[in-house]
Design a protein that fits this description.
- This protein is of the alpha+beta class and 405 residues long.
- It has 3 domains: 276 residues; 52 residues, no CATH class; 38 residues.
- Helix content is 39%, strand content 14%.
- The protein has a 4-stranded antiparallel sheet with strand order 1-2-7-3, sandwiched between helices.
- Helix 5 packs antiparallel against helix 6, helix 8 runs parallel beside helix 9 and helix 10 packs across helix 11.
Length: 405
């Protein structure tokens, strides 16, 4: 299992200092043109709810930005990426050993396969919370749990090549050379030079890298550019997690739980409490003047390598998977699972696996929900909302013309 903490500047829609609207909309791309009762529709989820709508997902993330300024980071994105062998293992589990090929799963088995990924993700977020290093003013370790976190996640089955992919960069360099030759031919009146340029173009085209069912080669397959769909099995999970916790803290003590229930009777303390700010990009583990909790210096830090190693071990333990040498995450600076992590992983692995809840969810998007979605979009991102509305009107006009014809 490969776990990634994505860089803020590479998030679709810009960065993570504004609304999560653009990112949630992007992660919903596989639900495009699907109704909520379609078998292939799969909404967002977290440890509390399944089938969370796009609107609700945005509300969950954007509604947890208390005391964060316009310049502050609001959320982060993680992804859990099983290898081909790990996906095959889950397919065998979902089909009770009938097949190890995703395309041969029945609709019910495919739902169960996705449910395994959801179960794993929710448990891995327990490790995410546990990896943060925090201490109260007395020096006692603060133990965070998944229930303290505010997040939504989405299972995806497809991948596209991004602008940062090395294969895309290679092909863009080739295309730049080809375009230069084509421009030369357009302006040239020298037949010999035109012939030479055509030969050079043909040679350059043979250097394009192509995706042939997930294998990179030059002979056949789709030429790899930004947006080209990757071949092969590409199930993975994206998680959008708030910087603030749902629970609220005061001087290292949790005084309001994740459901908003006060844990102390002192109203003054409750009024001063706030969500703990967590960043997976914080690498320090000592006290810092820049990091304070309720005016007190606190220990901060997140060990990404530990999180990745522990998450890989969790998959193996939870699903009884024996990793191959090539898909076993070993880390770069953290190669051993700590005794504390082993205990947590063992506890998470013993949790019973959930069963998929059926094929059809039932249509829930009525006129009121559609109106709510438009209103939320307008508040979260006016420009994107206007563009979405314009696209819908153009679509309606084209459909009307088609019917009229």
């Amino acid at each position: 299992m490969f776990v990634k903490v994505h860089k803020p500047l590479k998030l679709t829609g810009g960065n993570n200092k504004g609304s999560s609207f653009n990112l949630i909309e992007y992660l919903s791309k596989e639900n495009k043109d699907l109704e909520r009762d379609d078998m292939d529709y799969d909404g967002f989820f977290n440890s509390d709810h399944d089938d969370i709508s796009d609107n609700k997902a945005v509300q969950i993330i954007d509604g947890n930005n208390h005391r964060l300024s316009a310049r502050d980071t609001k959320f982060y994105m993680l992804s859990f990426n099983p290898s081909w062998e790990e996906q095959k293992h889950l397919v065998e589990m979902a089909s009770n050993g009938r097949t190890n090929i995703i395309e041969e799963l029945s609709p019910e088995e495919n739902l169960q396969f996705r449910q395994y990924l959801k179960d794993y993700t929710n448990d891995a977020m327990e490790l995410y919370a546990n990896t943060f290093s925090r201490k109260d003013k007395e020096g006692n370790e603060i133990i965070l749990e998944a229930k303290d976190l505010n997040y939504v996640a989405k299972v995806e089955s497809k991948r596209e090549y991004s602008i940062w992919d090395k294969n895309v960069k290679h092909n863009l360099a080739i295309k730049k050379k080809i375009d230069k030759k084509l421009r030369q031919n357009e302006s040239s009146k020298n037949p010999a030079k035109i012939i030479l340029n055509k030969r050079a173009i043909k040679d350059l085209e043979s250097q394009y890298l192509r995706d042939d069912n997930g294998r990179i080669q030059t002979e056949k397959g789709n030429i790899i550019f930004q947006g080209t769909e990757k071949g092969g099995w590409n199930y993975h999970v994206h998680v959008v997690v708030s910087r603030n916790t749902k629970s609220k803290w005061y001087k290292g003590e949790k005084v309001v739980d994740e459901k908003g229930n006060p844990l102390v009777s002192d109203s003054k303390i409750i009024s001063k409490a706030r969500g703990m700010q967590l960043s997976p990009n914080a690498k320090g583990t000592g006290k810092s003047e820049k990091h304070q909790l309720n005016d007190e210096k606190v220990h901060v830090g997140f060990h990404q390598e530990k999180f990745k190693t522990d998450s890989s071990s969790l998959f193996n333990e939870k699903f009884g998977y024996k990793p191959k040498e090539f898909d076993q995450y070993k880390g770069t600076t953290y190669k051993n699972v700590s005794p504390q992590s082993k205990q947590l992983i063992a506890r998470l692995s013993k949790k019973p696996l959930n069963k998929a809840k059926g094929v059809a969810i039932g249509k829930t998007l009525g006129d009121a929900a559609i109106a709510e979605r438009k209103a939320l979009a307008l508040v979260s991102n006016p420009k994107a909302a206007a563009m979405m509305e314009l696209k819908q009107k153009v679509k309606e006009i084209l459909l009307a013309k088609g019917m009229a014809g």
